[in-house]
Amino acid sequence: MLGGKTPYEAKNKKKPHLADIQEFGVAAYVKDLKARKLDSRAQLSHFVGYDLESKGCRTYWPGKRSIMVERNVVFNKDDVRTPDNLATIPGDPLAEGEKEKIIQQPKNNAKNTNNQAVSDTQPDSKAVETHKTFQTSNSVPFPSTDDKTSAVEAEPVDETQDQPYGRGQRPRKPQGAYRVMNNGLVAAVVIDSLQDVESVDKNLEDNNEINNLPPDFALVGGLSSEPGSLDEALCRPDVKEWQTVLEYEINQLEIFGTWVVEDLPKGHMAIPCSEVLKIKRGPNREIQTYRVRIVAGGHRQVEGVSYSETFSAAVKMPTIHAVLANAAQQNWEIEHVDVKSTYLNAPLKETVYMKAPHGVLKSEQKGKVLRLLKGLYGLKQEGRGWYQEMSRVFIKEFGFKRSAADHSVFYQ
Protein backbone atom coordinates (compact mmCIF):
# COMPACT_ATOMS: atom_id res chain seq x y z
CA MET A 1 0.00 0.00 0.00
CA LEU A 2 2.86 2.39 0.86
CA GLY A 3 5.08 1.07 -1.92
CA GLY A 4 7.94 0.07 0.38
CA LYS A 5 8.01 3.42 2.18
CA THR A 6 7.80 4.11 5.89
CA PRO A 7 4.77 5.98 7.23
CA TYR A 8 7.01 8.97 7.97
CA GLU A 9 8.29 9.08 4.38
CA ALA A 10 4.83 8.66 2.92
CA LYS A 11 3.45 11.54 4.99
CA ASN A 12 6.34 14.06 4.85
CA LYS A 13 7.64 13.15 1.36
CA LYS A 14 11.18 12.67 2.71
CA LYS A 15 13.15 9.95 4.36
CA PRO A 16 13.66 10.12 8.13
CA HIS A 17 17.05 11.16 9.51
CA LEU A 18 18.52 8.05 11.13
CA ALA A 19 22.08 9.25 11.74
CA ASP A 20 21.55 9.45 15.53
CA ILE A 21 19.93 6.04 15.86
CA GLN A 22 22.17 3.78 17.95
CA GLU A 23 22.53 0.05 17.66
CA PHE A 24 21.11 -2.08 20.46
CA GLY A 25 23.82 -3.07 22.96
CA VAL A 26 26.30 -0.36 21.95
CA ALA A 27 28.60 0.82 24.73
CA ALA A 28 27.17 3.94 26.41
CA TYR A 29 29.37 6.05 28.68
CA VAL A 30 27.23 7.96 31.16
CA LYS A 31 28.69 11.04 32.85
CA ASP A 32 29.16 10.56 36.59
CA LEU A 33 28.00 13.75 38.30
CA LYS A 34 29.22 12.54 41.71
CA ALA A 35 32.74 11.64 40.61
CA ARG A 36 35.57 12.82 42.83
CA LYS A 37 38.89 14.27 41.81
CA LEU A 38 40.60 10.98 40.93
CA ASP A 39 37.50 9.01 39.90
CA SER A 40 36.45 8.23 36.34
CA ARG A 41 34.33 10.89 34.72
CA ALA A 42 32.00 8.37 33.06
CA GLN A 43 30.58 4.93 33.81
CA LEU A 44 30.14 2.17 31.24
CA SER A 45 26.64 0.90 30.46
CA HIS A 46 24.82 -0.52 27.40
CA PHE A 47 22.21 1.15 25.23
CA VAL A 48 18.88 -0.70 25.17
CA GLY A 49 16.49 1.88 23.70
CA TYR A 50 14.98 5.35 23.93
CA ASP A 51 12.70 6.63 26.65
CA LEU A 52 9.09 7.36 25.67
CA GLU A 53 8.54 10.15 28.21
CA SER A 54 11.75 12.19 27.90
CA LYS A 55 14.66 12.88 25.56
CA GLY A 56 16.81 10.35 27.30
CA CYS A 57 18.26 6.94 26.56
CA ARG A 58 17.56 3.72 28.39
CA THR A 59 20.82 2.13 29.48
CA TYR A 60 21.43 -1.21 31.15
CA TRP A 61 23.87 -1.39 34.08
CA PRO A 62 25.31 -4.91 34.44
CA GLY A 63 26.62 -4.24 37.95
CA LYS A 64 23.25 -2.98 39.23
CA ARG A 65 21.16 -5.29 37.03
CA SER A 66 18.79 -2.46 36.28
CA ILE A 67 17.73 -0.13 33.47
CA MET A 68 17.86 3.62 33.96
CA VAL A 69 17.11 6.68 31.83
CA GLU A 70 20.19 8.85 31.21
CA ARG A 71 20.72 12.08 29.29
CA ASN A 72 24.48 12.76 29.40
CA VAL A 73 25.55 9.78 27.30
CA VAL A 74 28.40 9.30 24.81
CA PHE A 75 28.24 6.23 22.55
CA ASN A 76 31.10 4.16 21.20
CA LYS A 77 29.78 2.74 17.93
CA ASP A 78 32.81 0.47 17.55
CA ASP A 79 32.00 -1.37 20.78
CA VAL A 80 28.71 -3.17 20.24
CA ARG A 81 28.05 -5.86 22.80
CA THR A 82 25.14 -8.25 22.84
CA PRO A 83 26.09 -10.36 25.86
CA ASP A 84 24.77 -13.86 25.87
CA ASN A 85 24.61 -13.91 29.65
CA LEU A 86 21.65 -11.50 29.81
CA ALA A 87 18.20 -13.01 30.11
CA THR A 88 14.78 -11.50 30.64
CA ILE A 89 12.74 -12.92 33.49
CA PRO A 90 9.83 -14.80 31.93
CA GLY A 91 6.34 -13.81 32.93
CA ASP A 92 3.31 -11.80 31.91
CA PRO A 93 3.72 -8.71 29.69
CA LEU A 94 4.77 -5.61 31.59
CA ALA A 95 2.18 -2.97 32.34
CA GLU A 96 2.62 0.61 31.16
CA GLY A 97 5.29 2.41 33.17
CA GLU A 98 6.60 -0.80 34.77
CA LYS A 99 10.36 -1.28 34.57
CA GLU A 100 11.72 -4.34 32.86
CA LYS A 101 13.51 -6.74 35.19
CA ILE A 102 16.74 -8.27 33.95
CA ILE A 103 18.90 -10.88 35.64
CA GLN A 104 22.46 -11.83 34.86
CA GLN A 105 23.23 -15.51 34.65
CA PRO A 106 26.51 -16.70 36.19
CA LYS A 107 29.37 -17.32 33.82
CA ASN A 108 29.75 -20.89 32.59
CA ASN A 109 33.04 -22.73 32.55
CA ALA A 110 34.39 -24.78 29.68
CA LYS A 111 32.65 -27.98 30.80
CA ASN A 112 29.30 -26.27 31.01
CA THR A 113 29.81 -24.83 27.53
CA ASN A 114 30.42 -28.31 26.13
CA ASN A 115 27.39 -29.66 27.94
CA GLN A 116 25.28 -26.86 26.46
CA ALA A 117 26.47 -27.76 22.98
CA VAL A 118 25.56 -31.40 23.57
CA SER A 119 22.19 -30.47 25.03
CA ASP A 120 21.29 -28.63 21.83
CA THR A 121 21.27 -31.95 20.01
CA GLN A 122 19.02 -33.63 22.59
CA PRO A 123 15.21 -33.87 22.23
CA ASP A 124 13.04 -30.89 23.12
CA SER A 125 11.78 -32.52 26.32
CA LYS A 126 15.24 -32.45 27.92
CA ALA A 127 15.74 -28.86 26.86
CA VAL A 128 12.50 -27.87 28.53
CA GLU A 129 13.52 -29.75 31.69
CA THR A 130 16.91 -27.97 31.77
CA HIS A 131 15.18 -24.60 31.32
CA LYS A 132 12.89 -25.28 34.27
CA THR A 133 15.86 -26.28 36.40
CA PHE A 134 17.60 -22.98 35.66
CA GLN A 135 14.52 -20.96 36.58
CA THR A 136 14.08 -22.68 39.90
CA SER A 137 17.66 -23.01 41.08
CA ASN A 138 19.30 -20.10 39.21
CA SER A 139 22.62 -21.95 39.41
CA VAL A 140 24.94 -23.71 37.00
CA PRO A 141 24.39 -27.51 36.96
CA PHE A 142 27.63 -29.37 37.52
CA PRO A 143 28.38 -32.42 35.34
CA SER A 144 28.47 -35.80 37.00
CA THR A 145 31.94 -36.99 37.88
CA ASP A 146 33.23 -40.27 36.47
CA ASP A 147 35.45 -42.87 38.12
CA LYS A 148 38.66 -41.14 37.09
CA THR A 149 37.76 -37.79 38.50
CA SER A 150 36.39 -39.27 41.72
CA ALA A 151 39.81 -40.69 42.56
CA VAL A 152 41.30 -37.20 42.60
CA GLU A 153 41.06 -35.45 45.92
CA ALA A 154 38.74 -32.46 45.91
CA GLU A 155 40.22 -29.05 46.54
CA PRO A 156 39.32 -27.39 49.84
CA VAL A 157 36.29 -25.13 49.52
CA ASP A 158 36.22 -21.77 51.21
CA GLU A 159 33.16 -21.78 53.43
CA THR A 160 33.12 -17.99 53.61
CA GLN A 161 32.07 -17.82 49.97
CA ASP A 162 28.74 -19.50 50.79
CA GLN A 163 27.95 -17.08 53.59
CA PRO A 164 25.19 -14.54 52.79
CA TYR A 165 26.24 -10.97 52.27
CA GLY A 166 24.53 -7.62 51.71
CA ARG A 167 22.20 -5.41 53.70
CA GLY A 168 20.55 -7.24 56.57
CA GLN A 169 22.87 -10.27 56.28
CA ARG A 170 25.60 -9.14 58.67
CA PRO A 171 25.83 -11.40 61.72
CA ARG A 172 24.48 -9.65 64.80
CA LYS A 173 26.37 -9.50 68.06
CA PRO A 174 24.71 -10.90 71.18
CA GLN A 175 22.86 -8.56 73.48
CA GLY A 176 25.20 -6.71 75.83
CA ALA A 177 28.34 -7.14 73.71
CA TYR A 178 28.91 -3.40 73.33
CA ARG A 179 28.33 -2.80 77.04
CA VAL A 180 31.06 -5.33 77.85
CA MET A 181 33.40 -3.60 75.41
CA ASN A 182 32.70 -0.20 76.96
CA ASN A 183 33.19 -1.48 80.50
CA GLY A 184 36.46 -3.07 79.49
CA LEU A 185 37.66 0.14 77.83
CA VAL A 186 36.90 2.24 80.93
CA ALA A 187 38.64 -0.31 83.12
CA ALA A 188 41.68 -0.29 80.83
CA VAL A 189 41.87 3.51 81.00
CA VAL A 190 41.73 3.44 84.81
CA ILE A 191 44.46 0.82 84.99
CA ASP A 192 46.61 2.76 82.54
CA SER A 193 46.48 5.78 84.85
CA LEU A 194 47.86 3.80 87.81
CA GLN A 195 51.55 4.14 88.57
CA ASP A 196 52.16 1.03 90.71
CA VAL A 197 53.15 -1.92 88.53
CA GLU A 198 52.22 -4.51 91.15
CA SER A 199 48.72 -3.09 91.54
CA VAL A 200 48.33 -3.12 87.78
CA ASP A 201 49.20 -6.82 87.58
CA LYS A 202 46.84 -7.61 90.42
CA ASN A 203 43.98 -5.73 88.80
CA LEU A 204 44.59 -7.50 85.52
CA GLU A 205 44.39 -10.89 87.25
CA ASP A 206 41.24 -10.04 89.21
CA ASN A 207 39.37 -8.26 86.40
CA ASN A 208 37.56 -10.96 84.41
CA GLU A 209 35.93 -8.40 82.10
CA ILE A 210 39.31 -7.49 80.59
CA ASN A 211 40.38 -11.12 80.23
CA ASN A 212 37.10 -12.09 78.55
CA LEU A 213 36.84 -9.18 76.13
CA PRO A 214 35.57 -9.97 72.60
CA PRO A 215 37.91 -9.65 69.60
CA ASP A 216 36.34 -6.30 68.68
CA PHE A 217 38.07 -4.77 71.71
CA ALA A 218 41.33 -4.85 69.73
CA LEU A 219 39.87 -2.22 67.41
CA VAL A 220 38.44 -0.17 70.27
CA GLY A 221 41.83 -0.09 71.96
CA GLY A 222 43.27 1.75 68.97
CA LEU A 223 40.80 4.60 69.36
CA SER A 224 41.48 7.69 71.45
CA SER A 225 40.44 7.65 75.09
CA GLU A 226 38.56 10.95 74.90
CA PRO A 227 35.28 11.03 76.84
CA GLY A 228 32.12 11.22 74.81
CA SER A 229 30.25 13.47 77.25
CA LEU A 230 30.85 15.66 80.27
CA ASP A 231 29.23 13.10 82.58
CA GLU A 232 31.72 10.50 81.37
CA ALA A 233 34.62 12.93 81.91
CA LEU A 234 33.54 13.57 85.50
CA CYS A 235 33.75 9.82 86.21
CA ARG A 236 37.32 9.45 84.99
CA PRO A 237 40.50 9.57 87.09
CA ASP A 238 41.49 12.84 85.39
CA VAL A 239 38.31 14.57 86.54
CA LYS A 240 40.27 17.50 88.07
CA GLU A 241 41.79 18.41 84.72
CA TRP A 242 38.40 18.37 83.01
CA GLN A 243 36.84 20.50 85.73
CA THR A 244 39.65 23.04 85.42
CA VAL A 245 39.31 23.47 81.66
CA LEU A 246 35.50 23.60 81.93
CA GLU A 247 35.68 26.44 84.43
CA TYR A 248 38.19 28.24 82.20
CA GLU A 249 35.86 27.93 79.18
CA ILE A 250 32.88 29.30 81.12
CA ASN A 251 34.96 32.20 82.48
CA GLN A 252 36.13 33.14 78.98
CA LEU A 253 32.57 33.12 77.66
CA GLU A 254 31.42 35.33 80.53
CA ILE A 255 34.34 37.75 79.95
CA PHE A 256 33.30 38.13 76.31
CA GLY A 257 29.70 38.81 77.42
CA THR A 258 28.34 35.86 75.51
CA TRP A 259 25.06 35.58 77.45
CA VAL A 260 22.84 36.91 80.19
CA VAL A 261 20.75 34.81 82.58
CA GLU A 262 17.01 35.38 82.16
CA ASP A 263 13.67 33.67 82.53
CA LEU A 264 12.36 31.98 79.41
CA PRO A 265 9.44 34.07 78.02
CA LYS A 266 6.22 32.36 77.07
CA GLY A 267 6.09 31.24 73.48
CA HIS A 268 9.86 30.93 73.16
CA MET A 269 11.96 27.78 73.00
CA ALA A 270 15.45 27.30 74.43
CA ILE A 271 17.83 25.39 72.19
CA PRO A 272 20.07 22.76 73.82
CA CYS A 273 23.82 22.90 74.21
CA SER A 274 26.61 20.37 74.50
CA GLU A 275 30.25 20.16 75.49
CA VAL A 276 32.93 19.02 73.05
CA LEU A 277 35.89 17.49 74.90
CA LYS A 278 39.28 16.95 73.30
CA ILE A 279 42.70 15.82 74.50
CA LYS A 280 45.68 17.30 72.67
CA ARG A 281 48.61 14.90 72.60
CA GLY A 282 52.25 15.27 71.68
CA PRO A 283 54.32 13.33 69.15
CA ASN A 284 54.85 10.51 71.67
CA ARG A 285 51.15 10.33 72.58
CA GLU A 286 51.75 12.17 75.84
CA ILE A 287 48.93 14.42 77.03
CA GLN A 288 49.68 18.11 76.55
CA THR A 289 46.41 19.95 77.15
CA TYR A 290 42.72 19.32 77.83
CA ARG A 291 40.14 21.33 75.93
CA VAL A 292 36.41 21.88 76.43
CA ARG A 293 34.23 23.93 74.10
CA ILE A 294 30.57 24.74 74.74
CA VAL A 295 28.56 24.43 71.53
CA ALA A 296 24.99 25.58 70.92
CA GLY A 297 22.48 23.18 69.38
CA GLY A 298 21.86 25.07 66.16
CA HIS A 299 19.92 22.12 64.73
CA ARG A 300 16.98 23.19 66.92
CA GLN A 301 16.85 26.75 65.59
CA VAL A 302 13.76 27.84 63.65
CA GLU A 303 14.14 29.87 60.47
CA GLY A 304 12.53 33.28 60.73
CA VAL A 305 12.50 33.10 64.54
CA SER A 306 16.04 32.53 65.79
CA TYR A 307 17.87 33.09 62.49
CA SER A 308 17.25 34.46 59.00
CA GLU A 309 20.31 34.68 56.74
CA THR A 310 23.24 32.28 57.06
CA PHE A 311 25.38 33.02 53.99
CA SER A 312 28.95 34.09 54.69
CA ALA A 313 31.51 34.93 52.00
CA ALA A 314 34.57 32.69 52.02
CA VAL A 315 37.88 33.39 50.31
CA LYS A 316 38.45 31.57 47.02
CA MET A 317 41.57 29.54 46.29
CA PRO A 318 42.36 31.46 43.03
CA THR A 319 42.41 34.64 45.13
CA ILE A 320 44.95 33.14 47.52
CA HIS A 321 47.10 32.03 44.59
CA ALA A 322 46.95 35.49 43.01
CA VAL A 323 47.88 37.23 46.28
CA LEU A 324 50.81 34.92 46.96
CA ALA A 325 52.06 35.20 43.38
CA ASN A 326 51.88 38.99 43.49
CA ALA A 327 53.64 39.05 46.86
CA ALA A 328 56.43 36.85 45.52
CA GLN A 329 56.87 39.05 42.47
CA GLN A 330 56.88 42.29 44.51
CA ASN A 331 59.06 40.74 47.24
CA TRP A 332 56.47 41.44 49.92
CA GLU A 333 56.28 39.86 53.35
CA ILE A 334 53.32 37.66 54.23
CA GLU A 335 51.93 37.76 57.77
CA HIS A 336 49.34 35.42 59.24
CA VAL A 337 47.02 36.39 62.11
CA ASP A 338 44.95 33.91 64.10
CA VAL A 339 41.91 35.36 65.89
CA LYS A 340 41.05 33.46 69.07
CA SER A 341 37.38 32.87 69.88
CA THR A 342 36.51 34.29 66.47
CA TYR A 343 32.73 34.08 66.56
CA LEU A 344 32.51 35.51 70.07
CA ASN A 345 33.68 38.88 68.75
CA ALA A 346 30.50 39.38 66.71
CA PRO A 347 27.23 40.54 68.34
CA LEU A 348 24.10 38.48 67.77
CA LYS A 349 21.17 40.35 66.20
CA GLU A 350 18.48 37.71 66.66
CA THR A 351 17.00 36.70 70.00
CA VAL A 352 18.19 33.19 70.87
CA TYR A 353 17.63 31.41 74.18
CA MET A 354 19.79 28.46 75.19
CA LYS A 355 19.72 26.02 78.06
CA ALA A 356 22.52 26.63 80.53
CA PRO A 357 25.46 24.23 80.44
CA HIS A 358 26.82 22.49 83.52
CA GLY A 359 28.35 24.88 86.08
CA VAL A 360 26.87 28.16 84.81
CA LEU A 361 23.76 28.70 86.92
CA LYS A 362 23.98 29.33 90.62
CA SER A 363 21.71 27.76 93.18
CA GLU A 364 19.30 30.75 93.21
CA GLN A 365 19.15 30.78 89.37
CA LYS A 366 17.70 27.31 88.96
CA GLY A 367 15.17 27.08 86.12
CA LYS A 368 16.53 30.07 84.20
CA VAL A 369 17.99 30.07 80.68
CA LEU A 370 20.67 32.01 78.82
CA ARG A 371 19.91 34.70 76.24
CA LEU A 372 22.81 34.73 73.81
CA LEU A 373 24.41 38.07 72.96
CA LYS A 374 27.32 36.82 70.86
CA GLY A 375 27.66 34.27 68.09
CA LEU A 376 28.34 31.09 70.04
CA TYR A 377 29.78 28.10 68.20
CA GLY A 378 27.07 25.92 66.74
CA LEU A 379 24.60 28.65 65.74
CA LYS A 380 23.54 28.79 62.12
CA GLN A 381 24.31 32.51 61.72
CA GLU A 382 27.66 32.53 63.52
CA GLY A 383 29.76 32.75 60.34
CA ARG A 384 27.68 35.51 58.81
CA GLY A 385 27.81 37.58 62.01
CA TRP A 386 31.61 37.34 62.16
CA TYR A 387 31.98 38.35 58.50
CA GLN A 388 29.76 41.40 58.97
CA GLU A 389 31.70 42.49 62.06
CA MET A 390 35.05 41.97 60.33
CA SER A 391 33.87 43.94 57.28
CA ARG A 392 32.69 46.80 59.49
CA VAL A 393 36.04 47.03 61.27
CA PHE A 394 38.11 46.86 58.08
CA ILE A 395 36.04 49.39 56.14
CA LYS A 396 34.90 51.92 58.74
CA GLU A 397 37.74 51.82 61.28
CA PHE A 398 40.78 50.88 59.18
CA GLY A 399 39.75 52.49 55.90
CA PHE A 400 40.03 49.39 53.74
CA LYS A 401 38.09 48.82 50.53
CA ARG A 402 36.34 45.57 49.67
CA SER A 403 37.14 43.87 46.37
CA ALA A 404 34.26 43.51 43.92
CA ALA A 405 35.66 40.24 42.55
CA ASP A 406 36.03 38.55 45.95
CA HIS A 407 34.22 39.96 48.98
CA SER A 408 36.70 38.29 51.32
CA VAL A 409 39.55 40.52 50.05
CA PHE A 410 40.12 43.97 51.55
CA TYR A 411 42.81 46.37 50.29
CA GLN A 412 44.05 49.92 50.73
Describe the overall structure:
The protein is of the alpha+beta class and 412 residues long. The protein folds into 3 domains: 7-104, no CATH class; 177-223; 233-411, no CATH class. 30% of the residues lie in helices and 18% in strands. It has 12 helices and 15 strands. The protein has helices at residues 7-12, 110-119, 124-137, 147-151, 177-193, 197-206, 208-211, 217-221, 230-233, 239-255, 317-330, 382-397, and strands spanning 26-31, 42-50, 57-61, 66-70, 73-80, 86-88, 102-104, 259-262, 270-271, 273-281, 287-296, 353-354, 369-372, 401-402, 410-411. Strands 4-3-2-1-5 form a 5-stranded antiparallel β-sheet, with no helix packed on it. It has a 4-stranded mixed β-sheet with strand order 8-13-12-9, with no helix packed on it. Strand 3 and strand 4 form a beta hairpin. The longest helix has 17 residues, at 177-193. The chain is extended. The model is unreliable at 85-91, 93-98, 101-152 and 194-198 (pLDDT under 50).
Largest sheet: 5 strands, antiparallel
**Cα distance, first to last residue?**
84 Å
The order of strands across the largest sheet is 4-3-2-1-5
Count of spatially separate domains: 3
Mean pLDDT: 77
- Please provide the count of β strands: 15
* Fraction in beta strands: 15-25%
Helical proportion, percent range: 25-40%
- What coarse outline follows from CA principal-axis ratios? extended
Unreliable runs, pLDDT <50, ≥5 residues? Answer: 85-91, 93-98, 101-152, 194-198
Count of alpha and pi helical runs: 12
Round the Cα radius of gyration to an integer and report it.
35 Å
**What is the string of helix and strand elements?**
HEEEEEEEHHHHHHHHHEEEEHEEHEE
Structural class: alpha+beta
